[in-house]
Amino acid sequence: MALVLVVMLFTLIPIRSGGGQRARLQEVISEFERAVRFAVNESILRNSITRLSIDMDKDPMEYAVEYGTSANIILPEIEDESRMSIKDREEQLKRFKSLDAQFSRVEEFSDEAKKMPDDVEVIGIASSYLNLIKADGKVSIYFYPTGERDNSLIFVSTEEELASFDIPPFEDITNTDYYTYSQTDLVNLEDSQDNKMKDVFEKWLKD
């Protein structure tokens, strides 16, 4: 009878996948660390600008390391689309398409674009180039032959936890902080994620 009660008790307890999600979250962060090191080395070896390009519109999300045709590629200025006319938006889109045409994927990093696990996603990217948090589209972090890179912040999330992955501009390191969602956060997860990203972003700007 005692054994039956124990079995019934465990049957009623919901099984959480947090351990697995944390492992996959850390695996994605480790892959981003590897991509950053690879992009830095490739930029110096090729004497050209390289970039870590993350496509947040793909399902599952994809990322790749890409190299440019030279070290003298001019990056278009980022403008606030909410204040632009339709014509201005079309012109900006053309400029970025022209920029993309100057980059090719580094096959030595991966034969094809890497795909993220279904339960892990990038929910925002900020950088010194963007000067804001971008939550959709294809976003790139740039690395230069001098060893400098965009001061960048990548927000990666599971259903239970948020990680902020920080890439300093001049240091050969990366930093990661983890934030576990509370039960209150989970009631409206998207708003909680936005608020946490803004808080971390504002502190990051001050530092």
Summary, kept brief:
The chain is an alpha+beta fold and 207 residues long.
Name some characteristics of this structure:
207 residues, alpha+beta, five-stranded antiparallel beta sheet, 38% helix, 25% strand, globular, disordered N terminus
Mean pLDDT: 89
The SSE string, one letter per element, is HHEEHEEEEEEEEHH
Strand content: 25-35%
Tell me the distance between the termini. Answer: 61 Å
Shape: globular
Question: How would you characterize this protein structure?
Answer:
This protein has helices spanning 2-12, 18-46, 86-100, 183-187, 189-206; strands at 50-55, 62-68, 103-105, 114-115, 121-127, 133-134, 138-143, 152-157, 161-167, 175-180. By secondary structure, the protein is an alpha+beta fold. Strands 1, 2, 3, 4 and 7 form a five-stranded antiparallel beta sheet that branches. The chain has a five-stranded antiparallel beta sheet with strand order 6-5-8-9-10, with helices on both faces. A hairpin with a 5-residue loop joins strand 5 (121-127) and strand 6. Mean pLDDT is 89; it is low at 1-18.
Secondary structure layout:
Layout lengths: L1 H11 L5 H29 L3 E6 L6 E7 L17 H15 L2 E3 L8 E2 L5 E7 L5 E2 L3 E6 L8 E6 L3 E7 L7 E6 L2 H5 L1 H18 L1
Antiparallel strand pairs: 1-2, 1-7, 2-3, 2-4, 5-6, 5-8, 8-9, 9-10
